Amino acid sequence: MKTQVGIIGSGPSGLLLSQLLDLQGIESVILERQSREHVMGRIRAGVIEQGTADLLRTAQVHARMDREGQPHDGVNIAFNGERYRIDFKGLTGSAVMVYGQTEITRDLFEARDALGGTIIDEAEDVRPHGIDTDSPYLTYRKHGEAHRIDCDFIAGCDGFHGVSRQSIPADVLHTYEKVYPFGWLGVLSQTPPVADELIYAHHARGFALCSMRSATLSRYYVQCPVDEDLADWPDDRFWDELRRRLPDDAAEALVTGPSIEKSIAPLRSFVAEPMRFGRLFLAGDAAHIVPPTGAKGLNLAASDIYYLSRALTAFYKDGQQALLDAYSETCLRRVWKAERFSWWMTTLLHQFPENGAFGARVQLAELDYLVNSKAAMTALAENYIGLPY
Ligand code: FAD
Ligand code: PHB
User: Fold this and answer.
1) Minimal-distance CA residue to ligand 1 atom 40
2) Active-site residues: which are they?
């Protein structure tokens, strides 16, 4: 098989790239290791920036998002039993939208199917080859048969555990990593959200987050040890722990019910540089990971895809190399700012016993400063709604 852009991974990065390229008349093929059901079943991001929403509109996958997505003009920060609102709209003139990654992925699959896009799922042993030549290709196996796809470029959209990043020679690739000593235990439940807007709660027992997907679907998280066993967290224990970490009014308003999904996610900051080697371009989680506290992971994947689709379009339409050459540097400037913000939000809100009593008091002073300083709130708001592309 032959195509113009070979894409590894059918997460939001790979699907969005394929869709944007198709609308510019550029062909691609996606190779995905998992089944489509598996990809669509993953519960992950919930908050999208204005820039991401606009890109989804450019990709013509916005109809359901504009109908069902909920604009959020602010968030709540809770500590010392009180709740404070950060007014994104008032401070920056912009807002975010709550619309699940699960829904975005479904919309993108439907759009690719409608345009006749090729997505090969359950592809085993996918490998990029010849990435430092002008004729790269991909190999994979399906139902025991070996296949090869020749292409002009390869997009590595295969997430943190993918094969793309590992194909860049070790003496070229630099990685930067911070692993946090805790995880997030998340629950999805068919219950009305505890509040109209998200609550990020700092508490001596650990961080808690109240989020949502719709008026009838809630998503909650509590900070937990990273090696925690899910079996030790029956629903009742989760709800009790969440309630204890929330201000009284929220704890009283919390509606509980059976969990429909429960999982533990480790927290990590990670960046791989460069994001391009020869004809291989990394995008999304394949190149960088942020802890979820700033709601930036999916949004960074979208900005990478914006830069990559623009660069590939300039190459095919005008024979221009400059944007491809600038890809890694352009992405990384935005990536590092989101890394900084996500690390800062994580540091501000979680318990770090290793920082001692002094560290804990400084953290409370910073929270107190934040909610009483327009400058500090504006800095949070500006980053949360998303820095410009
Ligand atoms: P992925 O979604 O990981 O997709 C990669 C795809 O490649 C997968 O389908 C995988 O199966 C496939 N693949 C992997 N290896 C191979 C291979 N060898 N061959 C073929 N295919 C392969 N982000 C936000 O912006 N806001 C949030 O609120 C938010 N909340 C989050 C909450 C949690 C609990 C978690 C875990 C993440 C959250 N994120 C959030 C992050 C967000 O989910 C990711 O950043 C996003 O999924 C990245 O998309 P991607 O397409 O780059 O990678
Ligand atoms: C979510 O709804 O899953 C969510 C929201 C905000 C975050 C992280 C996750 O910061």
Assistant:
1) 45
2) 72, 200, 292, 296, 384
Euclidean distance between CA atoms 107 and 56, whole angstroms? 10
For the stretch 49-103, pLDDT in tens is 999 999 999 999 999 999 999 999 999 999 999 999 999 999 999 999 999 999 9
Q: How does the average pLDDT of the chain come out, rounded? A: 97
Tokens of 126: 């996918």
Ramachandran sector of residue 191 (left: φ over 0; alpha: ψ -120 to 50; beta: rest): beta
CA distance 223 to 52: 27
185 sits in the region (left: phi over 0; alpha: psi -120 to 50; else beta) called beta
Q: Tell me, in angstroms, the distance from the centre of ligand 2 to residue 292's CA.
A: 7
Band of pLDDT at residue 116, cut at 50, 70 and 90: very high
Strands (E), 168-251: 174-189, 199-201, 208-214, 217-224
pLDDT value at residue 384: 98
Structure-token pair, residue 86: 């950060």
pLDDT band at 43 (very low <50, low <70, confident <90, very high): confident
**Residues 103-117: what's their mean pLDDT?**
98
Q: What does DSSP say about strands 82-87 and 74-79: parallel, antiparallel, or unpaired?
A: antiparallel
* Backbone torsion region of residue 48, taken as left when φ is above 0, otherwise alpha when ψ lies between -120 and 50, otherwise beta: beta
Task: Provide the token pair at 316.
Answer: 């095919």
Phi, psi of 302 (to 5 degrees): -65, -40
Which of 211, 259, 262, 385 has most ligand 2 atoms within 8 Å of its beta carbon, as the pocket-test mutant?
A: 211
212 and 249 Cβ atoms separated by less than 8 Å: no
